């Protein structure tokens, strides 16, 4: 008999290779280069935006976890992802108080009320963004130019709007910057309303205006690929989203290439890249079967293009992902794999 | 199926893949470098009366009896059962419940023998060297007498498994030498040291089954075992019958269903046995035991056991008599190291932790693992499932473990069956890769046990309902018969009364006599009604009582047996 008591545990009795906090921490690490590029591009305002949403998201998570007796759930790092992702989808000059509202609503309504991590139906960051999209439609569609001179020393005027106040119009401020013709408006808006398609290379590398962290498709792609390589996210979902978007855009572009965007343009603009690699691939809200993941991804890609082409909004990624999140459980149950030794007339899942 | 001619080494056999699986650090070299050492006879043996699936054996010796090695001490009960033999000579000192290797930690009836150290053998049944001229039934009988059970872990009586019945002839016998669980090396050593005996056993089983060929599946991390087995096959001149197949190392390739898939590309139908598709799987240890029983008349009284893990000083294999305490094995391995944290029976993936090493080696116990906390660290409290799907990726049964988990957690027993809970082989892959460290397999075991319990309850309720219905029908029939009798009586009564009245009237006057006659008849009916009412009340009371007592009176649970069958042989 060994002298000390033996701990009894259930099988398997080997070391676990992965943990939730390691997965979440990897995503945060993958988001950092995107944050850095955002700050490089939009300066102090972007930094303040990222800090605000992350801090408010964490505070909200802490509060609700305390209220529901779950203890400290900040250690799983998932809420940090929500905070950062939310900031990256907002215009760089978005008033901080509105960003705080978005972060609070996203975490409280989108996550905590469902029971916290793993129980949320939809992507919490996008729930927050959808809320402020409805509440502050002007502020969330006011983009400011990238690479504004003096961006590291002063903030965009709308950033520091007092709580519950409307932001000051930034048109005069932009005019004062004296930039070239198209870099002030986002490529998506230019394409939709003026049928001007900026060169794909500029769009791909991110030397353009746009939401704080959505501009550089290249950077997002690299960070996403790193996560896929580390097997933190399933590559099938982002690839399916991109394929769905490109294939849906292709026929329209072939029919009328002057009015409709090219598949490449569709892929590298707006939130598609960030959405595909960091939000659609969110583990909790996506289907659990392999074929389900593909269906879900294609659905998001196709819906995004349809909203962009036929909807009143310039961007459709957010609603496409939220809708697909809602459909994910259904897709999962439709696409249940055939089990080992399944008999022909296998029972269907009700 | 087409006939595929094959000769050892002539060409590479086509292999198939099963879904998922894990590449685990195999840790085999910890214990497989030295030959299996015979363990000195312990002073006391504890031999459980149930070391198989099915009905426990009944002790046929009494306290104080002298027994000899190989003597039957427990008689099998019923068709699915196995006898138990004395593993050495000595005196029976007790027949009582003792701790046995079981996840529950509960005690079970055992025969305790104080060894005399002489190891005097009982008279053994005669060897059957000419097994090819012997009827299959006689050989099965010998296997049954020898107490042979599946030694891969499921411990199903071998003679029953070797009689799959006429409607499913076994075409291919598959011998499981995969030994896919990390750490365990007893089959590896057995194949290296006793390849010829194993091949003899295989030959006997092929004869019993009248099977056309045999495939021996061995993982490629055991090259010495593969070489030894191939050599034994050619030495016996059985290349046309037996092929030793080298399969890739991937846990759980030693699972019965997975091995079948790898070697034949076929899948055992859900809720069915391999015999359905003309296959039968036996472990190498079972083949060895069959050879011992048929060619030497020796019952199953010893086996190889691996003692491994970094929690013991000198991991290695031992040849051990059944009933030897695990503590003696650990002591022979140099005892525990100070950082030993856990004691596991079986492999690290499917084995179960036990509290104490004061448990005996049984026929199906293959490994005693003493793990350090570095090898088997505390996974910490379970975190919420984040639906990452890693579990589904590795599941060899192609299940959706996280969906099973949600529904098991919610105690939704219908839903878990919709998600094919009973196709789970409890290999533990899902739980090992789960980043939330959820004890998934434990949830499935729970849901299975609950489902069996519910099924039993349902059967009990149905039984009670049928009994009630039968009783009602009987009462109604009795009532109808009684009514009929009454009517007959009534019909007869007026005539009788008139006859009596006429008689009485002849004596005392017709008027009074007629009145008296009707009065007696109505009084009789009243009495009958009162009796009937009382009877009915009593019947209702009895029914109520029967309804409450019935579930309790239902047959004893058999969950254990079922659970073990389901867990299967994964080695």
UniProtKB/TrEMBL annotation, chain A:
Pfam families to which the protein is assigned, alphabetical: NQR2_RnfD_RnfE
Localization (cell): Cell inner membrane
GO cellular component, one term: plasma membrane
Residues spanning the membrane: 23-40, 96-114, 126-148, 203-228, 235-255, 261-280, 292-311, 317-335
Record carries keyword Mitochondrion: no
Main subcellular localisation: membrane
UniProt entry tagged with the keyword Transcription: no
Enzyme Commission code: 7.-.-.-
Cofactors (names): FMN
Superkingdom in the source lineage: Bacteria
Protein function: Part of a membrane-bound complex that couples electron transfer with translocation of ions across the membrane.
Listed name of the protein: Ion-translocating oxidoreductase complex subunit D
Source organism per UniProt: Thiohalocapsa marina
Lineage: Bacteria, Pseudomonadati, Pseudomonadota, Gammaproteobacteria, Chromatiales
From TrEMBL, chain B:
Requisite cofactors: [4Fe-4S] cluster
Pfam families for this protein: Complex1_51K (PF01512), Fer4_7 (PF12838), RnfC_N (PF13375), SLBB (PF10531)
Residue span, 4Fe-4S ferredoxin-type domain: 375-405, 415-444
Enzyme nomenclature, EC number: 7.-.-.-
Annotated [4Fe-4S] cluster 1 binding sites: 385, 388, 391, 434
InterPro entries hit by this protein: 4Fe4S_Fe-S-bd, 4Fe4S_Fe_S_CS, Ion_transpt_RnfC/RsxC, Nuo51_FMN-bd, Nuo51_FMN-bd_sf, RnfC_N, Soluble_ligand-bd
Keywords recorded for this protein, A-Z: 4Fe-4S, Cell inner membrane, Cell membrane, Electron transport, Iron, Iron-sulfur, Membrane, Metal-binding, Repeat, Translocase, Transport
Residues at which [4Fe-4S] cluster 2 binds: 395, 424, 427, 430
Entry annotated with the keyword Transport: yes
Family of this protein: Belongs to the 4Fe4S bacterial-type ferredoxin family. RnfC subfamily.
Assembly and oligomerization: The complex is composed of six subunits: RnfA, RnfB, RnfC, RnfD, RnfE and RnfG.
The protein's name: Ion-translocating oxidoreductase complex subunit C
Gene source species: Thiohalocapsa marina
């Amino acid at each position: 008999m060994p002298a000390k008591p033996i701990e009894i545990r259930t099988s398997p009795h080997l070391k676990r290779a992965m943990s939730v906090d390691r997965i979440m921490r990897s995503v945060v690490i993958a988001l950092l280069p995107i944050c850095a590029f955002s700050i490089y591009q939009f300066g102090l305002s972007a930094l303040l935006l990222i800090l605000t949403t992350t801090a408010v998201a964490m505070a909200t998570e802490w509060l609700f976890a305390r209220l529901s007796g779950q203890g400290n759930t900040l250690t799983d790092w998932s809420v940090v992802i929500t905070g950062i992702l939310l900031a990256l989808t907002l215009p760089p000059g978005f008033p901080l108080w509105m960003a705080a509202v978005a972060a609070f609503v996203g975490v409280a309504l989108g996550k905590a009320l469902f029971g916290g991590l793993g129980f949320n139906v939809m992507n919490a960051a996008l729930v927050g963004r959808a809320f402020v999209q409805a509440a502050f439609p002007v502020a969330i569609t006011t983009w400011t130019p990238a690479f504004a001179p003096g961006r590291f020393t002063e903030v965009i005027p709308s950033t520091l709007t007092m709580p519950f106040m409307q932001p000051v119009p930034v048109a005069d401020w932009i005019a004062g910057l004296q930039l070239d013709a198209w870099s002030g408006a986002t490529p998506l808006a230019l394409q939709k309303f003026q049928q001007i398609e900026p060169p794909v290379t500029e769009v791909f590398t991110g030397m353009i205006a746009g939401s704080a962290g959505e501009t550089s498709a290249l950077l997002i792609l690299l960070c996403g690929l790193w996560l896929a390589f580390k097997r933190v996210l399933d590559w099938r979902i982002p690839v399916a989203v991109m394929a769905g978007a490109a294939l849906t855009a292709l026929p329209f572009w072939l029919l009328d290439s002057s009015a409709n965007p090219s598949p490449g343009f569709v892929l590298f603009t707006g939130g598609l890249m960030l959405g595909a690699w960091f939000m659609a691939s969110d583990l909790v809200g996506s289907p659990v079967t392999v074929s389900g993941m593909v269906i879900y991804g294609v659905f998001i890609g196709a819906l995004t293009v349809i909203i962009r082409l036929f909807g009143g909004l310039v961007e459709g990624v957010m609603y496409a992902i939220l809708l697909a999140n809602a459909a994910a459980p259904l897709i999962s149950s439709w696409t249940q794999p055939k089990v080992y030794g399944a008999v022909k007339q296998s029972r269907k899942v009700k | 199926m087409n006939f595929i001619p094959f000769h050892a080494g002539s060409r590479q056999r086509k292999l198939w893949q099963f879904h998922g699986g894990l590449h685990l650090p195999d840790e085999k070299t910890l214990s497989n470098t030295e030959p299996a050492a015979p363990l000195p006879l312990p002073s006391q043996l504890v031999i459980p009366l149930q070391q198989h699936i099915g009905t426990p054996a009944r002790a046929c010796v009494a306290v104080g009896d002298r027994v000899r090695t190989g003597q039957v001490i427990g008689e099998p009960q019923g068709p699915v059962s196995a006898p138990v033999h004395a593993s050495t000579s000595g005196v029976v000192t007790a027949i009582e419940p003792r701790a046995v290797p079981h996840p529950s930690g509960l005690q079970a009836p055992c025969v305790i023998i104080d060894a005399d150290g002489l190891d005097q053998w009982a008279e053994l049944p005669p060897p059957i060297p000419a097994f090819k001229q012997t009827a299959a039934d006689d050989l099965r009988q010998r296997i049954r007498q020898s107490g042979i059970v599946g030694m891969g872990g499921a411990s199903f009586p071998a003679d029953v498994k070797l009689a799959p019945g006429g409607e499913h002839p076994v075409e291919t016998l598959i011998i499981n030498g995969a030994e896919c669980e990390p750490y365990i090396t007893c089959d590896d050593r057995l194949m290296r040291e006793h390849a010829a005996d194993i091949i003899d056993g295989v030959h006997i089983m092929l004869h019993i089954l009248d099977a056309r060929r045999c495939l021996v599946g061995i993982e490629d991390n055991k090259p010495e075992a593969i070489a030894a087995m191939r050599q034994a096959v050619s030495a016996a001149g059985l290349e046309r019958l037996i092929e030793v197949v080298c399969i890739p190392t991937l846990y759980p390739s030693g699972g019965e269903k997975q091995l079948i898939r790898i070697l034949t590309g076929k899948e055992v139908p859900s809720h069915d046995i391999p015999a359905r598709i003309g296959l039968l799987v036996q472990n190498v240890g079972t083949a060895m035991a069959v050879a011992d029983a048929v060619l030497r008349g020796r019952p199953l009284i010893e086996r190889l056991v691996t003692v491994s893990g970094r929690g013991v000083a000198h991991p290695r294999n031992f040849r051990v008599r059944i009933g030897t305490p695990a503590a003696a094995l650990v002591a022979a391995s140099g005892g525990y190291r100070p950082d030993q944290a856990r004691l596991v029976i079986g492999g690290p993936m499917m084995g179960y932790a036990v509290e104490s090493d004061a448990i005996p080696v049984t026929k199906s116990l293959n490994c005693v693992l003493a793990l350090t906390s570095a090898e088997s660290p505390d996974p910490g409290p379970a975190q919420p499932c984040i639906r990452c799907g890693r579990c589904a990726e590795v599941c060899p049964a192609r299940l959706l473990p996280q969906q099973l988990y949600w529904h098991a957690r919610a105690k939704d027993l219908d839903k878990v069956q919709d998600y094919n809970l009973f196709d789970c082989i409890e290999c533990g892959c899902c739980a090992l890769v789960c980043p939330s460290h959820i004890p998934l397999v434990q949830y499935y075991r729970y849901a299975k046990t609950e489902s069996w319990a519910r099924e039993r309850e349902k059967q009990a309720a149905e039984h009670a309902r049928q009994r009630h219905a039968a009783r009602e029908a009987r009462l109604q029939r009795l009532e109808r018969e009684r009514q009929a009798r009454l009517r007959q009586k009534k019909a007869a009564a007026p005539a009788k009364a008139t006859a009596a009245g006429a008689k009485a009237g002849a004596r005392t006057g017709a008027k009074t006599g007629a009145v008296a006659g009707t009065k007696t008849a109505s009084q009789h009916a009243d009495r009958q009604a009162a009796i009937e009412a009382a009877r009915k009340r009593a019947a209702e009371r009895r029914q109520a009582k029967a309804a409450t007592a019935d579930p309790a009176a239902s047959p004893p649970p058999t969950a254990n047996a079922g659970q073990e069958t389901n867990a299967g042989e994964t080695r």
